[in-house]
Amino acid sequence: MTSPGFRVMLKMHIHSGMEEEFEKVWRSVGAAVTDHPANLGHWLMRSTSEEGVYYISSDWVDEQRFREFEESWEHGEHRALLHPYRESATISTMHVVGHLLKSGEEVG
């Protein structure tokens, strides 16, 4: 397994009472991300300390391929379907500089 080169992390505040429906829609439209050949994985996480806060993480082979996806119509459709649930959101992007396996062995 090789280390992903680029990671995107979204922090989303979901309108109160819409959390369950948001999770369903995220699952139903996820292929827009995971079917992209440069995508290495896509995760939805719910905060245990902040009500209505979710984190969405995705790994990409590199920043350029993520940026191409970000400007695509597939991404636009994906965003449009999730937008009604969103109260606010922030995005962080980062280059992965290390990846340790359970045994402590570094990959990549």
Structure characterization notes:
With 108 residues, the chain is an alpha+beta fold. The chain has a single domain, classed as Alpha-Beta Plaits (2-Layer Sandwich). It is 31% helix and 32% strand. It is built from 4 helices and 4 strands, in the order E-H-H-E-E-H-H-E. It has helices at residues 19-29, 31-34, 63-70, 73-82; strands at residues 6-14, 39-46, 53-60, 86-95. A 4-stranded antiparallel sheet has the order 2-3-1-4. The chain is globular, with a radius of gyration of 15 Å. It starts with 5 loop residues before the first strand and ends in a 13-residue tail after the last strand.
Keywords:
single chain; 108 residues; alpha+beta; Alpha-Beta Plaits; four-stranded antiparallel beta sheet; 4 strands; globular
Q: Could you say what the CATH topology is called? A: Alpha-Beta Plaits
> What composes the largest sheet?
4 strands, antiparallel
Write down the Rg: 15 Å
In CATH terms, what is the architecture?
2-Layer Sandwich
Low-confidence stretches: none
Please tell me the overall pLDDT: 92
Organism: Nonomuraea turkmeniaca
GO molecular function: monooxygenase activity
Protein name: Antibiotic biosynthesis monooxygenase
Keywords: Monooxygenase, Oxidoreductase
Topology (elements, then pairings):
Elements: E1 6-14, H1 19-29, H2 31-34, E2 39-46, E3 53-60, H3 63-70, H4 73-82, E4 86-95
Antiparallel strand pairs: 1-3, 1-4, 2-3
InterPro entries: ABM_dom, Dimeric_a/b-barrel
Protein name: Antibiotic biosynthesis monooxygenase
Keywords: Monooxygenase, Oxidoreductase
